[in-house]
Amino acid sequence: MKFMNKRIFIAIQIFFISLTVKENFAQFDYGFDFSKAGSAGLQFLKIGVGARETAMGEAVTSIVNDANSVFWNPAGLAYVEKREVVLSHNQWLADSKHNAAVIAYPIGSFVVALNAITLNINEFEETTALQPDGTGRMVQAGDMLLGLSVAKRFTDKLSIGLQVKYVQEKLDNYKLSNVLFDVGTIYYTGFRELRLGFALQHFGPDMNLVNQDFRTPLLFRVSAADEVFSTENIGLIFAAELVHPTDNVEWINFGMEINLLNYVELRGGYRLDNDLSKVSFGIGLRPPSLSDFDFKIDYSYTPSEIIFNDIQRFTIGLAF
């Protein structure tokens, strides 16, 4: 009983540390006298990729360890031991479709990955002030990303990863493109299974569209996670994460994952100060390995907090 109380106490500590960090970030002066919302472009980069990660409330910067790490913290790529292929599908808002794919390949002491993201929006009819019911001309829009990542475990406790990516956004006859960078690290403290994760995402030069300057949607993530308890047949991981964007207010993510018999994973998450969605749920299946092949499938469900439909994501992965 005393052992369990200690684990619960540590989980509570992680919770209050996250709240304290958030308050400290809130004291910074960014030189703006107005809301930062809407001051950056390429907003599709903020859409969460992967059913496991989104089911855990996106509190995953310190626990990612497969090919999908490139979308959260490239340092997690360093823990890939086999060749991996991961595909994700997201039925996003307003019937748009958000898809992602990544291929990871260990090469010596490094792991290299190629990834891509597309956001496809249904074409719609153009309207004008003089023709509010439509002009008959159809408008297309969408986004695309191509990325190259590399990561390495420098010690048994420290891994570092880097990603360079080309991004493009299209709206009718207008196009906007840029080259951005991600960098991240994961550190195992040596105390129990406590690990810390840090990631800087979408760093790059400003952009210009129709004589309007836009910043990149820069994100800074700080995360901590630990195994609350672990036995031969069941384990529980708890994680907390602070997300600090340069174009909006900070928010905090919480997530948990229960592992049953190493074959089934139940997940839940909660996001504070996020107006799109707060609660999330999910499940993951890990069938027994067939020869040298490992297969996994994940699903997440996120009830929408606004007028859009609820969000469902599917991810499948194969390691060989």
Essential attributes:
two-stranded antiparallel ribbon; Porin; 320 residues; 51% strand; globular; mainly beta
Characterize the structure shown.
With 320 residues, the protein is mainly beta. The protein has one domain: monomeric porin ompg (Porin). The protein is built from 2 helices and 16 strands. The longest helix is centred in the first third of the chain and has 25 residues, at 2-26. It is globular, with a radius of gyration of 20 Å. The protein starts with a helix and ends with a strand. Residues 15-34 have low confidence and may be disordered.
User: How much of the sequence is in beta strands?
Assistant: over 45%
Structural class: mainly beta
Q: So, the CATH homologous superfamily?
A: monomeric porin ompg
Tell me the major beta sheet.
14 strands, antiparallel, barrel
Outline type:
globular
- The CATH topology label is Porin
Order of helices and strands: HHEEEEEEEEEEEEEEEE
Radius of gyration, CA atoms, in whole angstroms: 20 Å
- In whole angstroms, the N-to-C terminal distance is 42 Å
* Name of the CATH first level: Mainly Beta
Number of β-strand runs = 16
Number of helices: 2
Helicity, as a percent range: under 10%
Low-confidence stretches: 15-34
What oligomeric arrangement do these chains adopt? single chain
Overall pLDDT score: 87
